[in-house]
Write a structure and sequence with these properties.
- 41% of the residues lie in helices and 21% in strands.
- The protein folds into 2 domains: 185 residues, Rossmann fold; 150 residues, 2-Layer Sandwich (Dihydrodipicolinate Reductase, domain 2).
- Helix 9 packs across helix 10.
- It is built from 14 helices and 12 strands.
- It has 368 residues and is of the alpha/beta class.
- The longest helix has 24 residues.
Amino acid sequence: MTRFDLVLVGFGNVARRFVTLLDEQRAVLAREHGITTRIVGIVTRHHGQQFSSRGVDLAAFAASPIRNPQSAVRNATVDFVREALRRGATAANKGRLAVVETTTLDIEHGQPAIDHVRTALAGGAHAITANKGPAAFAYRELIRVAERADRRFLFEGAVMDGVPIFNLVRETLPAVKILGFRGVVNSTTNFMLTAMEQGQPFEQALKEMQSAGIAEADPSHDVDGWDAAAKTAALANVLLGADITPRTVERQGITPDTRRRAVAARAIQRRVKLIARAGWEGSRITARVGPEELPEDDLLATLEGQQNAIIFHTDLLGEIAIVQRGGGLTQTAYALLSDLLTISRATRQSRSSAPARRSPLSRGRRRA
């Protein structure tokens, strides 16, 4: 039985669901995967920070009064992660320490999530994040740091919740090259477009998503296309070998005027969807997010409400599509758990491999 010690950076809804999921799956994790887990460190924006080598009492921590709302600013959080790694050095040296990063996306620079991941890897811990920023802004750099440390940098929850997008390519498509992709990857805008083509006003459709907790109080990341652009950059960087950021993705969101276009398209058996796409054009990779009119029989046109899908164009297998019929906290939390299990498998394989061979714990699928 292998015990993984976990340091949580951020303790919002996703992290809390991850913790309860670990508890719910405790017997399965032990019986089928041979692992147990313990939360040894936590740092949050509102409740400060705590480390205990015997395990943090998360219920008591979450119930504690809000201390200093700025106690987890960038430098303080990085300092805590660094200190937690020092105190958890025994587990880190054995490959049993992981930093689980669930802070919110900064669309300007991807910080402080990038610093959190970099610090974790450089300190000998694996890094797992549901934040799109690290892969969207600094994938090449962070993969190099992970390779030097012989640790894993994983982010399955960054795109389409727990649907195995990155795992699918990394683990099950050896020798297959991803040439490009297109998809619907933002739930809020797909719901709004579905509602608007049926006559619902833009503002009313948006309020429904806000009431459901899907869209934020400031929904600009969704409706302006920034969330989709961040996911596009992450996918292109990881799967196509690009070196782009969300700021360099050609981007157009949806507006109240999009409603007229959606209604008109529906009347002629077409549908408007916010499409994220990237691919090779000659010797360069192009990436774009924007509304497109699709024929009704296009797979992406069939997506209703909050459904998402992505279609990969490959060299050997043609088109491969994955459809997500529903998502939420449990699915995103599962992505974190899935990444932890990926690390566990790689660690076991490393221990059983010949001593002369270096384990590819953090090797990415980089394309020339």
